[in-house]
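Design job #97: recover the sequence.
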């Protein structure tokens, strides 16, 4: 998308440093200091830490891809995705639901949507771990939930890699899916990870994110006084055991208020 828009693209990530997912790479810091870049699209798992390290007051026009508030950003419409997952759970006869997420900010959204739909939630079913983007975290978190005296009939996992760990734990414990439990996951379209049990995927299209990010950066480069813009990318599809049901797919402006 960037090349089609006429940009000369450079990707900066320290391949030998896993922390580069959260910190600006050394090569990027050097390029900015030498004024080699006209603009930047920042993708990171921890935008607040990234900003603090990068000190984004350098004057470089920047569009952020991430959940945390910023002047110019593109982020996933988690409320729409959570609502869609819970609607499906309720339609399939579930009366309770749990959540596994790396973002604490989505917990109140999940609880509010579940309450509105009449789905029960319990604190022990609402798990937040910063590392809930790994298979190990998903595996451990699910075993913790399943040790509780009461168990949810549906669980939403906010990361497709963590969901692999959840599904592995489900298979190891011999849990009947969907008889005893239904699993829902927010996933990237096209990243067809294998799950050893039935999983319903609420999918976002990375193409939509890229298209929105490039479009916003182009606007910012053309107009340095552009008012702050927040673009939400909505889920594009529901994938039930490999079968897609098309949904809406778009980026639309978010009201900061």
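Job complete. Output follows.
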């Amino acid at each position: 998308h960037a090349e089609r828009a006429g940009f000369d693209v450079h990707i900066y990530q320290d391949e030998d440093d896993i922390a580069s997912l959260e910190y600006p790479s050394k090569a990027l810091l050097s390029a900015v200091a030498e004024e080699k870049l006209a603009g930047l699209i920042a993708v990171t798992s921890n935008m607040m830490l990234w900003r603090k390290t990068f000190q984004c007051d350098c004057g470089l026009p920047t569009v952020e891809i991430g959940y945390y508030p910023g002047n110019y950003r593109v982020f996933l419409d988690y409320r729409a995705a959570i609502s869609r997952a819970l609607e499906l759970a309720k339609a399939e006869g579930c009366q309770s639901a749990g959540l596994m997420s790396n973002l604490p900010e989505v917990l109140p959204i999940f609880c509010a949507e579940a309450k509105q739909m009449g789905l029960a939630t319990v604190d022990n079913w609402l798990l937040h771990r910063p590392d809930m983007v790994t298979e190990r975290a998903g595996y451990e978190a699910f075993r913790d939930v399943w040790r509780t005296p009461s168990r949810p009939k549906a669980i939403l996992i906010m990361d497709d890699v963590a969901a692999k760990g959840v599904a592995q734990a489900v298979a190891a414990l011999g849990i009947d899916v969907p008889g005893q439990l239904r699993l829902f996951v927010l996933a990237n379209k096209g990243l067809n990870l294998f799950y050893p049990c039935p999983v319903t995927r609420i999918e976002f299209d990375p193409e939509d994110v890229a298209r929105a990010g490039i479009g916003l950066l182009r606007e910012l480069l053309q107009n340095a006084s552009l008012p702050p813009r927040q673009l939400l990318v909505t889920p594009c599809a529901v994938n039930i055991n490999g079968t897609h049901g098309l949904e809406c797919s778009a980026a639309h402006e978010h009201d900061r208020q």
